[in-house]
Sequence to fold (360 residues):
Amino acid sequence: METPEPNRADRLPGFGLTLLMNLTVIPLLLSWMGLGIILFPALFMALKLATTWHREKITRQLIWIYARISLVMMIPFVQFKAEGLKKNELKPTCILVANHLSFFDLYSLALLPFGDISVMVRDWPFKMFWYAPFMHLAGYVNVENVPWHSISEAVARILSKGGTILIFPEGHRSRSGQLQRFYSGAFRLAVETGAKIVPLCIAGTDQLWPPGRLWLKPARVRVRALKPVDPAEFTGTSAYRAIKKVVKTSMADNLREMTDQDRKARTARQANVV
Amino acid sequence: MTDQEIIDLINLTLVEEFELNMADMKPEALIFDDLELDSLDIVDMVVVLESAFQFKIREEASIREIRSLRDIHEFVINKKNQLAGS
Fold:
């Protein structure tokens, strides 16, 4: 039996909504980025005078607020859902490891209950002149072309001051949506510092803004924190590899579940439209 | 440790660390093109080789010259011989 072609009326809401989203949200986000850059010096000085926070923490907190406001701007088109991210569920001074689907993943981490987060980053984002000064001020760690002991010392310093580390262990965005090979750095750092690993599963950002596509699409973004993994429970010189395996398996299982749930929800919505 | 034992240990260490296939671990395999490693992996590679062979190599300039698996084998064998001679 032939599957009937969806008629124009069925296609319009999706296409119309996407067009509206790109005509409104992109200019709004770009304007907000410009305004944020202009306001940053004054806000930085205000927090410097009003608090005892060091400059990295001030910058990270401002980045977090900037990202949260960016999420609010997207609410008409993007549904955000946080799971296991309440203040009593997720404690700072840990190493967050997240899968990486989209440039937007960093923004969706504004769903976290705290903002003092330093991101471990490859070299190329430091070349984006509009972001680089803030990344340097925030104490983001460049993990490429630097000796291991520099990375290790920087992370230990951040954790000792109450900060949290965020790492995308895949190293770059997945183009297939599947979990890629994990670099070992995050897990080696957990063993060296004793900090717990908190796996974060991000779903939906690849629908919103996947690598290689220039426009946004309405999506449902979910961020789920999994049970922390304590490096103290692993022994031996290859403990970090065992931790990596446990974390990756757990993330893969949860991402599969989240993707299946989202696919079923989309199918149900499309059935209702028809 | 014989040279072949060193080669076998290097290959096993890299297979386990980078989730590679042992079948791909040919001496002529290029680490960036054939084994699909990148600059971030070199940091990890240095750490795992240091741990496997109990020596320090992170400050050595010749690491940057490594292009193939054979280069890694020769580097480690030379280093082991150097340390045994001193």
